[in-house]
Design goal:
The complex is a heterodimer of chains A (205) and B (800). Chain A has 205 residues and is an alpha+beta fold. The N and C termini of chain A lie far apart (70 Å). Chain A folds into two domains: 75 residues, Ubiquitin-like (UB roll) (Roll), CATH 3.10.20; 98 residues, [2Fe-2S]-binding domain (DNA polymerase, domain 1, Orthogonal Bundle). Helices cover 34% and strands 13% of the residues of chain A. Chain A is globular, with a radius of gyration of 19 Å. Chain B is of the alpha+beta class and 800 residues long. Chain B folds into three domains: 199 residues, Aldehyde Oxidoreductase, domain 3; 329 residues, Aldehyde Oxidoreductase, domain 4; 135 residues, Aldehyde Oxidoreductase, domain 4 (2-Layer Sandwich). In chain B, a hairpin with a 5-residue loop joins β13 and β14. The longest helix of chain B is centred in the C-terminal third of the chain and has 28 residues. Chain B is globular, with a radius of gyration of 28 Å. The chains are: A alpha+beta (205), B alpha+beta (800). Chain B: It is an enzyme of class 1 (oxidoreductase). Chain B: One of its GO terms (molecular function) is carbon-monoxide oxygenase activity. Chain B: Its EC number is 1.2.5.3. Chain B: Keywords: Molybdenum, Oxidoreductase. Chain B: It comes from Nocardioides abyssi.
Chain lengths: 205, 800
């Protein structure tokens, strides 16, 4: 048995601020620390899961300035100055589930739940960008994420259902977290849906 | 709630937590733990000459580095051989850390414990191991040839040779009007849960107590193994299974070296320690499955009726045999499917190779058995020029033939006796679902567009719910809430939901008031584990029985309180009332208060239970044959497994130029007995089908001849994305309840994966008109097969 007593070669530590889900986290990390690890360990936000650590599975997907990013492919120090949203930050301000979270639950779009945070962040950004995905577009939206439990059948249903919920419920569709620029399309469609009092598809907008 | 929840698609209670990122997977548990990382063998077969750890000590943040020499007592002995079997004459298991030899790339050699994983991995990179390389045995053929041995003391690389027979198969084949000899090959794949293995442990020095959180399929198994290896009493060890990010079989094997080493490190260092497997480690140090070569001799009559079946196969179990022979036994006994095989003999050799160990992966040998049987059925149909469904039909066990005894010993040591089923109806259903009889016109229609399509069919029977037992404890609190514990674990099957449905129905309480705990030895110390599609059958039955016991006590106490006959009482929405007289009632919570005579009141409700308030002063507060509390505990232990069944049909399109294979339609008929929650069952089928498609078309373990796994990453191991699974999976159910358990349940967890390769191979064969005998198959392999076939068809009488 050998136990270490005196340290040598210490790593340089960077004191940085990460903006995560609207909260500032002051963390001290070496330059090589992955954003995924910093979120999980330094910020204590363990909802972001690590499935492969080489950007293939998508489980660790978070939103960086609203865009889906594999947090295992980004260093924590590189995220300084960006707004990061993790799965913990997806719920509405009143604590209710966002449309994507609701839909995954409703459609049995998750089983073990390990890959789920990556799907939720990806689809949250996806339906913001494309509020009326066709069936093929719904499949395409999740085509970069791996799930080993569901066979994707109910995940695709959940994507379509999430878009439906988002369109039918304007407050839920337009979380006030970000700047308005990217939300115009979503908000517009949501209003159409509300005017029609429609809860499902068939939007003319 | 008065309506029954059994059979209802109740929304999962797990999900609110999970979609908020509130799951607690093992790596999420924050105890400020040190991180353990493992030095793994880069060679498939080598002797260890020496290990130099000096360079590690210069790294800041390293707390310990240990090799085999740092282990003692039971920790220095080989890992347990979990399932000994009489025919496993040469079983071998590895050491927690390799002693003097490594037998696969990835085998654990040393560990480092450090402040964090980054530092621990830095240190791992500085451990220098001097190896003497030995020749590697890779693949079934090399193992069988035995020019080199994996273990010096295991002749022929054979760990076990098993023969089972029911009748004289050889004579049956000889006497049959027709016979065929066939060869089939299935390659390696693996479970690949999205969460790898992981373990965290904390040693409480003051109390001499170890707590272990591990991503396992058996918390009680890990507890027993850790206690034995660390020399602790069972009651000193708690094993808690938190949320598990998928298992599919690989997490039933235990104890993994890391489960022991993390526990030992926590104890020795007096600090919490954790290990989280990374993806490459999962590929090279967890378990694989599936690889087998098979030879079939079959005799049959003009209708395709089996008259004799003689199967010989060679199973690649990797470098060690910790999980015994479960996989090849499943393959050999479940091969028979829904058919009357006539005289049947099956012989297998379980062989060592210098590759990752083999333990059950969803299906656990059944996909291989199904592939062999169903490809044989198709070969018979082709030989006779008959419809493939018709050949199956004449061989089916009939509904009036249950219980049907195959005369084989199953993987649980019990008889392979089918309990119930309706295979002819199932065949009709799958034919209807896939429009089997209309396929030729569809084929012609597609051919007119220059497109090539084929259809295939495969049937299976799956022994589910193997023993020995599971138990459950039901506790009704004075709040009226019902807390239930069962010992087996959950990996995404929605146990907290399905089991709560059973309890709500039996006790007459609101579903929301039921809380299920699984896989925590503090709550239920007696349990076996989650494997063999057994959770619903075993724990579902145990929970039902335990709830029944709790209900008996509720009614007994309520009948005293309400001065009514227990027969006249009902429980609806958590309130016991006299039937027809709803005003005469008492809530379950109040019954719970009454069940526990108190000396000390702590709130308004408990005042009613103090000794001055209740009870006959002339009797003991707790009767001699009674106990305080409103609880029920029971165990379910069946004499043998139940047998679920199903049939899948697939339509594929193959590109005439590129040989690309596309699934156009996937249909499933499924019989898992009584369905608790159809939404969950269908989800299980979807997932199984996707894994079946992965195994048929994409996934394999690409070992080179030196035993290096060339595709040990998600970049190269082609697990299906949504783009690789069909757009819809058509499912039809059949329910033939099992007579073996109170709810009539059969298992559903593994079913979806079993017939995938068989059905898809059949469809490709049908599209291409050339025999498909090896799976998985890639477009380039199909392209190559076409070329070979074009040459081969110039010489007639080719064997298939």
């Amino acid at each position: 048995m050998a136990e270490n007593t005196a340290g040598k070669t210490a790593e340089k530590i960077h004191d940085v601020r990460l903006e995560v889900n609207g909260v500032t986290h002051a963390v001290a990390v070496p330059a090589r620390r992955l954003l995924s690890d910093a979120l999980r360990q330094e910020c204590g936000l363990t909802g972001t899961h690590v499935g492969c650590e080489h950007g293939v599975c998508g489980a660790c997907t978070v939103l960086v300035d609203g865009r889906p990013v594999r947090s295992c492919l980004m260093f924590a120090v590189s995220a300084v100055g960006s707004e990061i949203t993790t799965v913990e930050g997806l719920a509405e301000p009143d604590g209710s589930l966002n449309p994507v979270q609701q839909a995954f639950r409703e459609c049995h779009g998750l089983q073990c739940g390990f890959c789920t945070p990556g799907f939720l962040t990806t689809v949250t950004a996806g339906i913001k960008e494309n509020p009326c995905p066709t069936h093929d577009e719904a499949r395409e939206m999740v085509a970069g994420n791996l799930c080993r439990c569901t066979g994707y059948q109910n995940i695709v249903k959940a994507v379509e259902r999430a878009a439906e919920i988002a369109r039918g419920d304007a407050p839920a569709a337009a979380p006030p977290e970000g700047d308005d620029g990217g939300l115009e399309a979503a908000t517009g469609d949501a209003e159409v849906a509300r005017d029609d009092d429609a809860s499902t598809t068939g939007l003319g907008a | 709630m008065s309506t029954k929840l059994m059979g209802e698609a109740v929304q999962r209670v797990e999900d609110d937590r999970l979609v908020r990122g509130g799951g607690q997977y093992v790596d999420d548990i924050d105890l400020g733990a040190l991180h353990l990382a493992v030095v793994r063998s880069p060679h498939a077969h080598a002797r260890i000459r020496s290990i130099d750890v000096d360079a590690v000590l210069d790294i800041e943040g390293v707390h310990a580095v240990w090799t085999y020499d740092d282990l003692d007592g039971a920790m220095a002995e080989p890992l347990p051989l979990l399932i000994p079997h009489p025919t496993l004459t040469h079983g071998r298991t590895q050491y927690a850390l390799a002693r003097d030899e490594v037998n696969y790339v990835g085998e654990a050699i040393a560990i480092v414990v450090a402040d964090d994983r980054y530092v621990a991995e830095d240190a791992v990179g500085r451990v220098v191991v001097d190896f003497e390389l030995l020749p590697a045995v890779v693949g079934v053929e090399a193992a069988r040839a035995a020019e080199n041995l994996v273990h010096d003391d295991v002749p022929g690389n054979i760990a076990a040779r098993s023969v089972q027979q029911n009748g004289d198969a050889e004579a049956g084949i000889k006497a049959a009007p027709h016979s065929l000899s066939l060869d089939f090959d299935i390659e390696r794949s693996a479970c690949m849960p999205m969460e790898g293995r992981g373990v965290t442990a904390r040693w409480d020095t003051a109390n001499g107590r170890l707590q272990v959180w591990t991503s396992t399929q058996t918390s009680t198994g890990v507890r027993a193994a850790v206690a034995a290896k660390l020399g602790l009493d069972l009651l000193q060890v708690d094993v808690i299974t938190p949320d598990v990010g998928g298992g599919f079989g690989v997490k039933i094997n235990h104890p993994w070296p890391e489960e022991l080493l993390v526990s030992l490190a926590a104890q020795r260092l007096g600090r919490p320690v954790k290990f989280t497997e990374d993806r490459r480690e999962h590929f090279i140090s967890s378990a694989h499955e599936r690889a087998q070569l098979h030879h079939v001799d079959v005799g049959f009559d003009d209708e395709g009726r089996l008259l004799g079946l003689d199967v010989r196969f060679w199973h690649d179990h990797g470098a060690y045999t910790p999980y015994g022979l479960i996989v090849p036994i499943n393959a050999s006994t479940q091969l028979v499917g829904p058919y009357k095989t006539g005289p049947y003999r099956v012989t297998f050799d379980s062989l060592y190779t210098n590759t990752v160990i083999v333990t059950p992966y969803r299906g656990a040998g059944r996909p291989q058995g199904c592939f062999v049987m169903e490809r044989t059925m198709d070969a018979i149909a082709a030989y006779l020029g008959k419809d493939r469904a018709d050949v199956r039909e004449v061989n089916l066990i009939q509904p009036d033939e249950f219980p049907y005894d195959h005369g084989l010993v199953f993987q649980d040591g019990r008889e392979t006796i089918y309990d119930s089923g309706d295979f002819p109806t199932m065949l009709q259903k799958i034919k209807t679902l896939v429009s089997w009889d209309d396929f030729e016109s569809y084929r012609a229609e597609m051919a007119a567009q220059g497109r090539r399509v084929g259809i295939g069919l495969a049937a299976y029977v799956e022994g589910t719910g193997a023993g020995p037992y599971e138990g459950a404890h039901v506790n009704i609190e004075s709040s009226g809430k019902v807390k239930v514990a069962t010992g087996l674990t959950s990996q995404g099957q929605g146990h907290q939901t399905a089991f709560a449905q059973i309890v709500a129905d039996e006790l007459g309480v609101p579903f929301e008031d039921v809380e299920i705990t699984t896989g925590d030895t503090r709550r239920m110390a007696y349990a076996v584990g989650t494997f063999a599609s057994r959770a619903a059958v075993m724990s579902g039955s145990a929970i039902h029985l335990a709830a029944k016991r709790a209900k008996e006590k509720v009614l007994r106490l309520a009948s005293d309180a309400l001065e009514a006959d227990p027969e006249d009482l009902q429980i609806v929405d958590g309130v016991v009332s006299v039937k027809g007289s709803p005003g005469t009632s008492i809530s379950l919570g109040t019954v719970a208060v009454l069940s526990n005579p108190l000396r000390y009141a702590f709130d308004e409700a408990s005042k009613a239970a103090t000794q001055f308030s209740v009870g006959d002063a002339s009797k003991p507060p707790v009767a001699e044959d009674d106990e305080p509390g409103l609880e029920g505990k029971d165990f379910y232990s069946p004499v043998r497994s139940t047998f679920a069944s199903g049939m899948h049909a697939v339509i594929v399109e193959t590109d005439p130029d590129t040989a690309e294979i596309t699934i156009l339609k996937y249909a499933v008929v499924h019989d898992c007995g009584t369905v608790i929650n159809p939404m969950i069952v269908e989800g299980q089928i979807h997932g199984g089908v996707a894994q079946g498609i992965g195994g048929a078309l994409y996934e394999k373990m690409a070992y080179d001849e030196s035993g290096q796994l060339l595709n040990a990453s998600f970049m190269d191991f082609l697990m299906p994305y949504v783009t690789e699974v069909p757009d819809s999976i058509d499912i039809d159910h059949l329910e033939t309840p099992s007579p073996l358990n109170p709810l009539g349940i059969k298992g559903a967890g593994e079913a979806g994966v079993i017939p995938g390769s068989a059905a898809i191979a059949a469809a490709i064969e049908d599209a291409e008109g050339l025999p498909i005998t090896a799976m998985p198959i890639s477009p380039s392999e199909l392209f190559e097969l076409r070329a070979q076939h074009a040459v081969a068809t110039t010489t007639p009488e080719e064997t298939r």
